[in-house]
Structure formats: structure tokens, C-alpha cells
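User: My instructor asked us to take a sequence, write out its structure as C-alpha cells, and then describe one feature of it. I'm not sure where to start. Here is the sequence I was given:
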Amino acid sequence: SSRRRDFGVKKALYERIGDAEYWVVDPVSRAVHVFIRRENGAYGPETVVSGSSVLTTTLLPNLEIALADIWL
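Assistant: Let's start with the prediction itself. The C-alpha cells for your sequence are:
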């Protein structure tokens, strides 16, 4: 039920209020699902960051989160 809420209700809410990005952290699959707002106001296709990747965002240019460091 939490997954359904995160990818349905919450995503739609954040999209409607105008948030530039919406992230869903899934500790079970050790992945971060990233939705980025497009010019038309809707979130674009989901990007999944996982494994030993480094998560970044244009909203905070100096932010780098090494996923391998958080899945301990």
C-alpha cells in the first residue's frame, strides 16, 4: 500500500503543486526512482538510480550521493 501511495497519490500531489523533482527511495530494491518536471508541467519518465551509482540533481549542483554508502 505504501508503494501504491508513493507512486500514485504522492507523485500526483507533488506534480500538481509544482515540485521540480520527486524522489522515491526504495530500500528493498536499493534504488531511487527520480521524476523530473518537464516544460509542460508534468513529470517525465521515471529514472531509476541503483547499485553503486551516484545520485545527483541539477537543483543542488554540488550534491552527490553515492548509493553504495547508504545501503549498509
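For the description part of your assignment, you could build on this observation: The chain has two helices and five strands. Try explaining in your own words what that tells you about the chain.
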